[in-house]
Design goal:
The chain has about 500 residues and is an alpha/beta fold. The protein folds into two domains: about 50 residues, MYOD Basic-Helix-Loop-Helix Domain, subunit B; about 425 residues, Aspartate Aminotransferase, domain 2 (3-Layer(aba) Sandwich). Helix 3 runs parallel beside helix 9, helix 6 runs parallel beside helix 7 and helix 9 crosses helix 11. The longest helix has about 40 residues. It is globular, with a radius of gyration of 25 Å. The chain starts with 12 loop residues before the first strand and ends in an 8-residue tail after the last helix.
C-alpha cells in the first residue's frame, strides 16, 4: 500500500528478549534509531516479529507463487543486485527478457513468422501491464478521433463488474469511464451480449477476463469477438478487445488447448499475464504482449541513452530488480510445455479432490466451474446459524488463510469462500483442509445446539429476539460492504 498506517495501541518502542544481549535500550518503532546495533541483533529483532506473519504455503487466498526450486532460488539471489533497466550493463538479462516475451507471444498465437520478433514488455505485475495496454488503446483511439476531426473527451472501457480493482485504478488515474456489465446470481462473469450493447464510438476497448478472481471462470472471448465484429461492421467502428489473462494465461494453453481466447481471434490486440501467478515465479513479474507492432503507438515508447546506449522503454516505473525476469526464463526452459501442463493438471486434480470432499459434507454449494483456473469457490447451503465469514475466521487457528467475501453487484447477497490451488498445494494438504473445515463446522453446530439447550433449561425466551438483532446487524454490514468495491480480491 502507498498509504501506510500504524496501530496506535502499540508501545512506541521495540523490545526483544534475545537482542537484549546486545541492545540494553529499546528501539523506537516509528523513527530511525540514533545509533547502530549489531547485525545479528537486527536480524533477530526482525525475525522475531516476522514469526507472527501467516505461512505463505497455507495462504490459499493468493494466486501468487510461494515455492520455487532451490536452483532457481540461487539464480534469484545471485542477480538480486542487478537493475533491470541497465540494459547496456546487463545485456544478457535484457536478452532473457526478450526471449520470454517471444515465448509468451507464440504461446498466445501471435501472428509471427519464424524470424519475427514479438512486441511486449516485462512489468512488475499485471496491474502495470494493464495500465500500459490501456494507455495504448487510449492513444490509438485519440489519434483516430483527431484524424476524423472528432472530439476525444469521453473515452470508456467496457468490462464486467467482476474485474480486478486495477481496472478501476486505470480508469480513475487515466480519466477513462469504466462501463461495467453487472453479474447476477449463477452467472458471475461478463455477459458478452450485454457488453457489446454498452459499446459506443467512445469505447477504446472491451476487456475480457480469462480467469475471474471471484470464481476462476473464463469469460467467453470467442463469442465476444464474434458479436463485436458484427457491431463494428454495422457501425464502422473498430473497437478492439484486451484479454486480462493475469491468472488464466498460463493455465488455458496447457489445460484447454482448443479454447479460442487469444490472438487467434482477430479483435484481440493485447494480452496481459502474471508471471508470479501460474507463471510459477515469486511475486514481482508480469507481462503484456501486443498482437503486432502497429498496436503499440510509437509515441508511448521512450528512448534513453544515458545508461550507455539507445534503449527503448515503455514502463510506468524505471528501476526494478532483474531476479524475477531471470526466474521466469528458468521456469520456461526448466519445465517446457509438458512441464507446465503437468503442473496445471496436478493443480486441477487437487481442486477435484477438494470439491468432492466438500460435496460429501452436504453443507456447501460449489460456485466455481470445472473449466477455469485451479480454484474452488463455494458457499453455505444454510447460513442461518453461522456464515462463511465465521468459517474463514475459525480456520485461522489451524494456519489456513482462506478468504470469505461477497460477490460483485448485482450478486452481492451471495457470500463465498475461495481456495486457490497452487503448485505447492498437495493432495494430502487438500485432505487436511477438508478435515479442518468439517471440524470447524461441527464445532459451530455443536456450540449452537449447546447454547439452545442451555437457554431452554433456564426458561429463557425463544431465540427470535436475538435472531432479529443479528439480522439487523447483518443488514447494516451488508449495506456497508455493498458500498465498497468488492473486485479487489487478489
Amino acid at each position: 500500500m502507498v498509504i501506510s498506517s500504524t496501530i496506535a495501541d502499540y508501545d512506541q518502542n521495540l523490545h526483544s528478549t534475545f537482542a537484549s544481549r546486545y541492545v540494553r535500550t529499546s528501539l523506537p518503532r516509528f523513527k530511525m534509531p540514533d545509533q547502530p546495533i549489531p547485525k545479528d541483533a537486527a536480524y533477530q529483532i526482525i525475525s522475531d516479529e516476522l514469526m507472527l506473519d501467516g505461512n505463505p504455503r497455507l495462504n490459499l487466498a493468493s494466486f501468487v507463487t510461494t515455492w520455487m526450486e532451490p536452483e532457481c532460488d540461487k539464480l534469484i539471489m545471485s542477480s538480486i543486485n542487478k537493475n533491470y533497466v541497465d540494459m547496456d550493463e546487463y545485456p544478457v538479462t535484457t536478452e532473457l527478457q526478450n526471449r520470454c516475451v517471444n515465448m509468451i507471444a507464440r504461446l498466445f498465437h501471435a501472428p509471427m513468422g519464424e524470424d519475427d520478433t514479438a512486441v511486449g514488455v516485462g512489468t512488475v505485475g499485471s496491474s502495470e501491464a494493464i495500465m500500459l495496454a490501456g494507455l495504448a488503446f487510449k492513444r490509438k483511439w485519440q489519434a483516430k478521433r483527431k484524424s476524423q476531426g472528432k472530439t476525444c473527451d469521453n473515452p470508456n472501457i467496457v468490462t464486467g463488474s467482476n474485474v480486478q480493482v486495477c481496472w478501476e485504478k486505470f480508469a480513475r488515474y487515466f480519466e477513462v469511464e469504466l462501463k461495467e456489465v453487472k453479474v447476477k446470481e449463477g452467472y458471475y462473469v461478463m455477459d458478452p451480449v450485454k457488453a457489446v450493447e454498452l459499446v459506443d464510438e467512445n469505447t477504446i476497448c472491451v476487456a475480457a477476463i480469462l480467469g475471474s478472481t471471484m470464481t476462476g471462470e473464463f469469460e467467453d472471448v470467442k463469442l465476444l469477438n464474434e458479436l463485436l465484429t458484427k457491431k463494428n461492421e454495422e457501425t464502422g467502428w473498430d473497437v478492439p478487445i484486451h484479454v486480462d489473462a493475469a491468472s488464466g494465461g498460463f493455465v488455458a494453453p496447457f489445460l484447454y488447448p482448443d479454447l479460442e481466447w487469444d490472438f487467434q481471434l482477430p479483435l484481440v490486440k493485447s494480452i496481459n499475464v502474471s508471471g508470479h501467478k501460474y507463471g510459477l515465479v515469486y511475486a514481482g513479474v508480469g507481462w503484456v504482449v501486443w498482437r503486432t507492432k502497429d498496436d503499440l503507438p510509437d509515441e508511448l515508447v521512450f528512448h534513453i541513452n544515458y545508461l550507455g546506449s539507445d534503449q527503448p522503454t515503455f514502463t510506468l516505473n524505471f528501476s526494478k530488480g532483474s531476479s524475477q525476469i531471470i526466474a521466469q526464463y528458468y521456469q520456461f526452459i526448466r519445465l517446457g510445455f509438458e512441464g507446465y501442463k503437468n503442473v496445471m493438471k496436478n493443480c486441477n486434480g487437487n481442486v477435484m479432490v477438494l470439491k468432492e470432499g466438500l460435496e460429501k459434507t452436504g453443507r456447501f454449494n460449489i460456485i466455481s466451474k470445472d473449466v477455469g483456473i485451479p480454484l474452488l469457490a463455494f458457499s453455505l447451503k444454510d447460513s442461518s446459524r453461522y456464515t462463511v465469514f465465521d468459517i474463514s475466521e475459525s480456520l485461522r487457528r489451524f494456519g489456513w488463510i482462506i478468504p470469505a467475501y461477497t460477490m460483485p453487484p448485482d450478486a452481492q447477497h451471495i457470500s463465498v469462500l475461495r481456495v486457490v490451488i497452487r503448485e505447492d498445494f498437495s493432495h494430502s494438504l487438500a485432505d487436511r483442509l477438508i478435515a479442518d473445515i468439517v471440524k470447524v463446522v461441527n464445532e459451530m453446530e455443536d456450540a449452537q445446539s449447546a447454547a439452545s439447550m442451555s437457554r431452554a433449561r433456564n426458561g429463557t425466551p425463544s431465540d427470535d429476539s436475538t435472531r432479529e438483532m443479528q439480522r439487523g446487524i447483518t443488514k447494516y454490514w451488508r449495506r456497508f460492504v455493498q458500498g465498497k468495491k468488492t473486485s479487489s480480491v487478489c
